Amino acid sequence: MIITILIGLAITIYGIVYKILDRSAKKWPYTVGTINSAQLAEKINTDVDGRRTARYKVALAYEYAVGGIGPMLEGKQLFPYLEVWGTNRKEKIKILEKLEKGTKVKVYYNPRKTSHSCLIVGCNYAINYFIAFGLAFLAFPLVFWIYGKSNDLLGVLDQIWVN
Q1: CA gap 142, 149 in Å, rounded
Q2: Which of 98, 112, 118, 140 has the fewest Cβ atoms surrounding its Cβ within 10 A?
Q3: What are the residues facing 56 on neighbouring strands?
Q4: Which residues contact 92 (CB under 8 A, 6 or more apart)?
Q5: pLDDT per residue over 76-114, tens digit each?
Q6: What's the pTM?
């Protein structure tokens, strides 16, 4: 039970830290960049029963110059901190339709490390899965603890019986 609590706590803290980092990226400055390439990356996983699951992500490359001047830098991140692989192919295709080669885009970059950049800030929904999963791990031991206490009915009945 303690291990489950620790795992849940670690996953929840991980999600919260990345949520804070993702939100803080909203304060990053931005410049105009150009899409060099964008395509749908596919990864097929096979489980132990032989079932296959396809996961997708937008693989892209864009170039930008900090403040519009200086050397051109290359970015590959859609979101600032986490790569987002998902099963919703249609969603990724909709993103790709907006990111055709040559398209001008806002490129957000970390002012402390200008080579760290992304196109979307503050709304990486995938981070919420970590928080929810961690909270679920924390809830399981609580449910078993409550269930264990509910089996202690004789202790409650002893309080109302007169000897």
Answers
A1: 11
A2: 112
A3: 42, 86
A4: 40, 56, 57, 58, 86
A5: 999 888 777 888 999 999 999 999 999 999 999 999 998
A6: 0.74
